[in-house]
Amino acid sequence: MAIVVVTGTGTGVGKTVATAAVAAASLAQGLSVAVLKPAQTGVAEGEPGDAAEATRLAGAITAVELARFPEPLAPATAARRSGLKPVTPTDIAEAAAKLSAVHDVVLVEGAGGLLVRFDEEGSTLAHAADLMRAGVLLVAPPGLGTLNVTALTAEAVRARKLNCLGVIIGTWRGDPDLAERCNIADLPVAAGAPLLGALPQAAAALSPAAFRTAAPDWLAPQLGGTWDAVAFAEAYAPPPGPTA
User: Fold this and answer.
1) Which of 23, 186, 195, 235 is a good FRET partner for 32, with 20 to 30 A between their CA atoms?
2) pLDDT tens, 162-210?
């Protein structure tokens, strides 16, 4: 029974779609899956959040949201401004433990990046991952500028003696530029962990049925898929560099 923290190098990098894809691939293997969203920010009461989106795309999963704050801010700031109780690492770990007792896979989707604060004591998703003894799956964009933030996040993971399972490219275009092509090889070096998948930029726009069928094709076997990192790198190999 595995607990995996899905975090990113920042906001809007594809964490929710990556979470849904891993969930769909796990379901296709016959595993039971739960998605835990500790803190949902920037979504009004009654509106669908990230956990609901993961359910829409992946299918028959258990989706749990621990807290919701209306303003699109870091969880600690959003909780303080709303006057609501913040989510603590203990809250997250206890909820994940309950889910892992009755599910094969528990995916914990963070808010923003690994070190975004959840409460006024400075607690982060990294603290929760430590309590849960969870592996960390890092979602990163493919373009220029991603290597530095990927390396910084992976360094933070290792500094806390957490296990970085690998990197997923969260938004892969069909017509990648030179930086994106080069980063296929450079991202796993920056992370010190394998590249475990690449999600099409328009994955969330697919019908749920199409998403569930295609999800294993976007993920490496370590995540229940059939995606081949070597073949992907060869297909998008950059052109030769200029010669002196």
Assistant:
1) 195
2) 999 999 999 999 899 999 999 999 999 999 999 999 999 999 999 999 9
Assessment of whether the complete model's pTM goes beyond 0.90: yes
pLDDT of the residue at 194: 97
Annotated active-site residue in 37, 85, 98, 161: 37
Q: Name the packing angle between helices 125-132 and 89-100 (round to 10°).
A: 40
Q: How many Å apart are CA 209 and CA 55, to the nearest integer?
A: 12
Type of residue numbered 128 = A
Q: What are phi and psi of 64, to 5 degrees?
A: -130, 130
- Residue 130 C-alpha from the chain's centroid: 17
Helix axes 50-58, 208-218, angle to 10 degrees: 90
Residue 236 to residue 191: CA distance in whole angstroms: 20
Please state the CATH superfamily assignment of the domain spanning residues 2-133+141-176+184-235 in this structure.
P-loop containing nucleotide triphosphate hydrolases (3.40.50.300)
3-state helix, strand, coil in the chain (%, to 5): 40, 25, 35
Residue 132: which of 111, 110, 154, 156 has the closest Cα? 110
What are 30-54's pLDDT values in tens digits?
999 999 999 999 988 888 999 999 9
Q: Is the dihedral of CA 17, 18, 19, 24 positive or negative?
A: positive
Write out the two tokens for 219.
Answer: 């993920």
218, 198 contact by CB (below 8 A)? yes
The question of whether 85 is a catalytic residue gets the answer no
- Please give the helix or strand (H or E) that residue 38 lies within, else none: strand 33-41
Q: What are phi and psi of 100, to 5 degrees?
A: -70, -20
